[in-house]
Write a structure and sequence with these properties.
12 helices, globular
Length: 284
């Protein structure tokens, strides 16, 4: 895995057609869902379908399974089934310090990592402690719909009601060097709204965005790709840095602006991502 997570596509665990097509949607990661998209009387059959999928098909995308929450009767059975499979991560809904520690213990002797779903008011306030509760925890996803229910507020397309949560979870994840994935944009027919929401996600530091429909994946990937201008500027920054080093300069400027370490690090990240995505020639 290249650890590129621009897009994460949810696929219902009880939909055989979509499960079979999981690897053709161009999403960096696919989340096989055993929770919200699966009716209570179909939980067991969805678990079986996902198990059969992993035993019969090779997939190049990152493989994640969203299990049912810690306080449900399906939680233990989900883990017991999934820990036997070749998956990359388990997505833990309504994550808390207690639930992530319990999941961590149940995953002993496996190589499965954990991603937490932050979708309660308490989860937002405790996000740093939740992320730091297990070394297996590699990052988080914000769950806007459930969070708004918990907050007793209206979920809007503009998303002002999520501003505090978005900034808080991004800051916590970056403080711990973990990834952050933004909540899905739920109107699957509003491409302009998806574009604006994803641009905002990228602008405040999210590493990627979840999607609930395959038609959203291309837009999300395109926005989280480095732009040509970003790549060219990054190249110029690193070229200027090399020239300054050769000339023995500790400080240098580009286009009349001083270039410091944060700008250099950002340029290096842009080039690294562009190489991994095949957007420029070189060795990643």
């Amino acid at each position: 895995m290249t650890n590129i997570r621009r897009s994460m596509l949810f696929i219902p665990g009880n939909n055989p057609g979509m499960l079979q097509s999981a690897d053709v949607f161009d999403s960096d990661s696919v989340i096989f869902d055993l929770e919200d998209s699966v009716a209570i009387d179909e939980k067991a059959s969805a678990r079986i379908l996902v198990k059969e999928l992993f035993s019969s098909i090779e997939m190049s995308c990152e493989r994640i399974v969203r299990i049912n929450p810690y306080d449900t009767p399906f939680y233990a059975s989900d883990i017991e089934a999934m820990r036997q499979l070749d998956i990359d991560m388990i997505l833990l809904p309504k994550a808390s310090v207690e639930s992530i520690k319990d999941l961590d213990q149940k995953l002993i002797k496996t190589n499965i990592n954990i991603m937490v779903l932050i979708e309660t008011a308490l989860g937002v306030e405790q996000v740093f402690e939740i992320l730091n509760a297990s070394k297996r925890c590699k990052g988080l996803m914000l769950g806007g719909e459930d969070l708004c229910v918990d907050l007793n507020c209206i979920r809007t397309k503009k998303g002002d009601e999520l501003l505090y949560a978005r900034y808080r979870v991004v800051n916590a994840s970056k403080a711990l060097s973990k990834f952050a994935i933004d909540t899905p944009y739920t109107d699957t027919f509003d491409e302009e709204g998806l574009k604006n929401d994803t641009l905002f996600s990228k602008s405040i530091g999210f590493d990627g965005k979840a999607s609930i429909n395959p038609r959203q994946v291309h837009c999300i990937n395109e926005i989280f790709n480095p732009t040509l201008d970003e790549i060219n500027h990054a190249k110029r920054v690193l070229e200027a840095k090399e020239m300054a080093l050769k000339e023995g300069k500790g400080v240098f400027s580009l286009d009349g602006k001083m270039v410091d370490l944060p700008i250099i690090k950002r340029a290096e990240k842009v080039i690294e991502l562009a190489l991994k995505l095949g957007l420029m020639k070189g060795t990643s």
